[in-house]
Amino acid sequence: xxxxxxxxxxxxxxxxxxxxxxxxxxxxxxxxxxxxxxxxxxxxxxxxxxxxxxxxxxxxxxxxxxxxxxxxxxxxxxxxxxxxxxxxxxxxxxxxxxxxxxxxxxxxxxxxxxxxxxxxxxxxxxxxxxxxxxxxxxxxxxxxxxxxxxxxxxxxxxxxxxxxxxxxxxxxxxxxxxxxxxxxxxxxxxxxxxxxxxxxxxxxxxxxxxxxxxxxxxxxxxxxxxxxxxxxxxxxxxxxxxxxxxxxxxxxxxxxxxxxxxxxxxxxxxxxxxxxxxxxxxxxxxxxxxxxxxxxxxxxxxxxxxxxxxxxxxxxxxxxxxxxxxxxxxxxxxxxxxxxxxxxxxxxxxxxxxxxxxxxxxxxxxxxxxxxxxxxxxxxxxxxxxxxxxxxxxxxxxxxxxxxxxxxxxxxxxxxxxxxxxxxxxxxxxxxxxxxxxxxxxx
Length: 443
What we know:
With 443 residues, this protein is mostly helical. The protein is 81% helix and 0% strand.
């Protein structure tokens, strides 16, 4: 097993961030270029069905009950404590159980999809129910297959090779771009062909990563192991991550629903455009934070608290720079949006400022959350997430209906709901790195 010093950990972190930025930029470019090609190939209505289908399929990632994140933390802990036998058992058990879950879900959902009135679900008469059922069933097969083989990402994260995860995304996106371009040139519009090509490219990245990793680390190749005693600690940790993931999904999904109900669906467009623009900041900050997850796990289990403190000092400086860039983007946003969308989207007066404030608060919360995730002290985070949902929905509705803030009321409500995490996160982190975490702060 790999033994890592503080200097090596820092050097690897910088290397992973640099590579991740390059790979991510290329992956985003490939995705961006593929969109207009897909629109031309499928047409507006076909593309709308496709986009909705992808949204439905995105829920599949929650079926692992957080076991994947549990695997990442337990593997990083095994590496730090030099217990390779445990690491192999965790990998084998996780692959075995997720394989069983994926296979069972695949069969169940494909059978069930044959009884769903998909024309009503997608609100279309462009394609009949039988064809749509075939498309959905094909999507389910590929998404659940990828769901299983993507466990390699958790392994790579645990050994602090997060840039390879982004490289896998690049392989998938580049493959998807090539596939849709070939379809556009050689076939008539077909949602089924699109689904098959997307599914193959989706799996290609993780297959490539799996072949590369397991050929380099033969000792970690999974074998069949359906052991409850081994999976139990992964599930114990994973269920808390699962709760946080569900809370986050509900937290962000409700914003657009509230806007639709209070202001109408046309108002979602302006909110979505501004949100996507500022997502550049959260994406960039996320690339910087991601390699730290398992680095924090490793340092914590080696009791290297000095390295953790030094890492946080650097992250606070980066946070300051990120906040300044957010304000600069806010100042430039009207011009950028006008060039990007023309006159197609009207942006309410307060929306840009409120979104900038949300980004500044959210990146602060995420900076501490990544450490707490890494050291598995997430009980407070789970409670804070539940509190945020409880506050967010009624507050956003109230502000939307009883103020003149327009759509900005929803982003302001969301920001206020995050405020408990602004204080609780850093307080718990200080407790932990000063080794004074007791009671709920140690859980």
